[in-house]
Design brief:
This protein is mainly alpha-helical. 55% of the residues lie in helices and 0% in strands.
């Protein structure tokens, strides 16, 4: 497990989870180092409330006039906000930081709506897209307004396997291969009008794939603009 997931777990775990095990108060330097690590992951030194680090940050704001100059300078170097954010801003920042952690691990902002590791994050991303919440911090974090996960997961799993096979061998698998059986099933579904335009686009992106031509002699593939956009973004169906 990546080290920053451990930090995310520590940050997001409710404070009551620590209540069963008495701990010594952490030193200022140890909390500061934790804040440095927090910024490396989330890009901000304003830890959200509801956990030990967030409460420590809040305490530094209250103690600003009493803190040593070197401590103030260290916090200023992290662009620490001396004014406490509102509750709504805290909630937004928390979800944005969890989103940033996802991007850091996966390399994209395609958080599944039913993300098992963080269901709340998946719901938040879907709601943000639906409501059209425009905030420059979203763009800076790599938020993607269009989900590329519209095709069913089973289809995409097999499509990616077929795509990789074609890339490695320059042709489709031989007859009887599991992937070839699946590919033939997609052709039959297309002939019966049961295959969505988007899935047809995915299959037509494979140079070796045939059997999805439009009646009457081929014609241009359907909805290729969306397909090309996905490919330019790092491959079909990420």
């Amino acid at each position: 497990m990546a080290w920053w997931w451990l930090l995310l777990w520590r940050v997001c775990l409710p404070a009551w989870a620590f209540a069963q095990t008495p701990l010594r108060p952490a030193s200022w330097e140890s909390m500061y180092e934790e804040l440095v690590a927090y910024k490396e992951v989330f890009g901000t030194a304003d830890a959200v409330l509801g956990n030990a680090l967030g409460r420590w940050c809040d305490a530094q704001r209250r103690l600003k006039g009493k803190l040593d100059a070197d401590k103030v300078a260290k916090l200023d170097a992290l662009d620490f906000s001396w004014a406490a954010p509102s509750k709504s801003e805290q909630n937004f920042d928390l979800m944005l930081q969890r989103f940033q952690a996802y991007v850091n691990e996966h390399g994209d902002g395609q958080v599944p709506k039913k993300y098992k590791l963080d269901p709340q994050l998946g719901s938040w991303v879907a709601a943000t897209r639906r409501l059209g919440i425009r905030d420059p911090r979203l763009e800076a974090a790599g938020f993607e307004w269009v989900s590329h996960r519209k095709c069913g997961s089973t289809f995409m799993k097999n499509f990616r396997k077929l795509r990789d096979y074609v890339a490695d061998y320059g042709a489709e698998p031989p007859e009887g291969h599991d992937l070839q059986v699946w590919a033939d099933a997609q052709r039959r579904a297309h002939r019966k009008g049961l295959l969505s335009y988007e899935r047809v686009d995915y299959l037509r992106s494979l140079a070796s794939f045939s059997g999805t031509e439009t009646p009457g002699g081929g014609g241009p593939p359907l909805q290729l603009f969306s397909l090309y956009r996905r490919q330019k973004g790092g491959g079909a169906g990420k």
